[in-house]
Amino acid sequence: MFESTRLLLFLTAAVLLAVAPGPGMLYVLARSLAGGKREGVLSALGTFLGGMVHVLAAALGVSVILARSAMAFATVKYAGAAYLCFLGVKMILDSRKKAEKQEAFSPHDLIVATSVARNPLWQGVATEVLNPKTALFFLSFIPQFVNRGAGHMFFQFVLLGTVSVVLNTSADLVVILLAGPLGKKIRSSSSFRRRQRTVTGAIMIGLGTYLATSESR
Length: 217
Fold this sequence. Notes:
Blueprint: H1 4-19, H2 23-35, H3 37-68, H4 70-96, H5 107-115, H6 120-129, H7 132-141, H8 153-177, H9 179-188, H10 190-213
């Protein structure tokens, strides 16, 4: 169903993007540091469920369009590839900015993250479901690896989306286990955050460029 080269590319990109610190990972880290591993695990489960909501919603809408129209399929792929490049450039530019105060992860963030809701599971679901960037990411990332010629578009979309969400959650669980030293590293080292953003941005630009210039399938 999936071409081996693109499947390997998908898994590589998904793993690299999963381990790059982002809002979801920092949220799980905040709950872990403030409430212990139990709250961290519940938060990670919440973001997993929220991510799956986006995957299913995108699959229901996009898979029907992609299955019926070759032109729509190509349009979504090119637009998605361009969006990935845009996100990559934005990450690199943001990492160069000197306004690190806006990205610093301070103890105040822990208070905000843990005071909004008492239940970390539903807080995690809401945090992910209400994040429009998550929806845009799945709409731009997953269609690049769907094989239109193999059919079963909905199943392909859900399978690839589930793998991506599982990898993200796995990375969050590792963060929970290493919450103490990893949290200190992320909060205290602006250069660490800058390098992570730069590397992730470069990955997204390379991925978007490759997918835009490769043969549509």
